[in-house]
Amino acid sequence: MNLLPWFALKEVPGVGNLLFKRLIDAFQTPQQVFGADASRLARVSGVSKRLAGTIRAHKISDQARRSHDRALDAGVSLVPLTHGDYPKLLAAIHDPPPVLQIVGQLDPDSAMVALVGSRKATSYGLKNASGLASELAASGFTVVSGLARGIDTAAHSGALAAQGRTIAVLGCGLGTIYPPENRRLAEAIARSGALISEFDYDRSPEAHHFPMRNRIISGLSLGTVVVEASLKSGSLITARCAADQNREVFAVPGHIHASQSAGTHHLIQEGAKLVASSADITEEFAAHVHTAAKSTTTPCDLSHSKPSQNTCRPDTSKFSLDHEEISVLKVLDLYPSHIDDILQTVPMGAGRLSAVLLNLELKGVVVRSPGKLFSLKEEKS
Fold first, then answer.
1. Could you tell me the mean pLDDT of each successive run of 10 residues in the chain, 381 residues long?
2. Which residue numbers delimit the DprA winged helix domain (predicted)?
3. What is the pLDDT of residue 340?
4. What are the helix (H) ranges across 221-303?
5. Fewest CB atoms less than 10 Å from the CB: which of 121, 157, 214, 246?
6. Where are the alpha helices (DSSP H) in 171-295?
7. Closest CA to 106 of 190, 172, 164
8. Residue 173 in contact with residue 337, Cβ under 8 Å?
9. Domains of the chain, earliest start first
10. Distance (Å, rounded) from C-alpha 338 to C-alpha 335?
11. Rounded to an integer, what distance in angstroms lies between the CA atom of residue 255 and that of residue 337?
12. Is the pTM of this model over 0.85?
């Protein structure tokens, strides 16, 4: 199939993903779009007479040729919207990518579930993301995420640990792995699943790419699970995309006072299904997974990710603590708290608080997690 016309139609000024789909629905191929007269083009909703003239006059540019050839030279598979290998669920959204660029094997008929969440995840969130992904993969689902730091990385890694399939949707071209520290993870994903992008191979990551990427993550998937998210987390965009696409939205609850879970709590209040174990997800989509692929493993119970009934606050009497250290310990819990939240409840400045927390960490009373999160070290009762 000659895909140059697909690249050419993508670059016509005024033809976005939504209008591209309408044109393909009306004319089947970009070649027929370019060959149609202006009056027929103008019958497509959103195509003005002026835009119809622009389409008619457009020629395949050198940039379109370079983008097309660069992908093929790099061994990338190009899958257009009308191809049988294009995922049906993604094709059903109102603004699907005209062409998917793929490294690996997509397996468009597999049942996919998206796991997304904060880049600055807590140990609680990371453990849940990995556990859910492992269980979903073992049950025959393909885990979809965005290769970002935090929850995405844990989700991909969990699926791979279960020897399952996972798909990473990039917010840049496939020639750039972002973040760069996930290069080895990306290579592992490509071996057992796929890396996907709608952007040209050499396109660098840009801020506006990631909301676009999010609609693909949700569009590929039967449902989207938000594992951990603050109210400002970009993963809430993915949840909103899923809802707009009439897909299921799930959310994992956290500690009621944790700002890192405020976004997931908001989703639950808005009607997202609360996830207490992987069974809450798999039971919704059991009919979509082939019986032979289903696992007999015990569903991942998220209660194991929380402080268990057999854990308790550390016995601080065996440590030599000053009054500042004691005041900080009083506001800490077994669930991680951000340093900014701690700062609002103790009578000291940021610099002094950091020093006190470091001392407590060195004494083995406090545990530091990525993202400036601190919690009490658990002790078995």
1. 92 94 96 94 94 92 94 96 95 96 91 95 90 94 96 94 95 95 95 96 91 96 96 94 96 90 96 95 84 44 48 64 88 77 86 91 83 74 48
2. 314-372
3. 82
4. 235-244, 262-269, 279-282
5. 246
6. 183-192, 209-220, 235-244, 262-269, 279-282
7. 190
8. no
9. 3-72 (1.10.150.20), 102-293 (3.40.50.450), 323-376 (1.10.10.10)
10. 10
11. 10
12. no
Q: What share of the chain is helix, strand, coil (3-state, %, to 5)?
A: 45, 15, 40
Q: Which residue has the tokens 């008929």?
A: 109
Residue type for position 144: V
- Environment class of residue 206 by beta-carbon count within 10 Å: exposed (0-12), middle (13-18) or buried (19+)? exposed
- Enumerate residues 6+ apart whose C-beta is below 8 A from 95: 16, 17, 18, 21, 215
- Give the per-residue SS3 of 236-257: HHHHHHHHHCCCEEEECCCCCC
Alpha-carbon distances of 114 from 63, 122, 146, 204, rounded to whole Å? 33, 19, 9, 24
Sheet of 99-104: strand order equals 77-80, 99-104, 194-197, 166-169, 142-145, 112-116, 223-226, 248-251, 273-274
Rounded Cα gap, residues 139 and 359, in angstroms:
44
**What's the rounded Cα separation, in Å, for the pair 143 and 254?**
22
pLDDT of the residue at 338: 78
For Cα atoms 97, 160, 295, give the angle at the middle one, nearest 5 degrees: 100
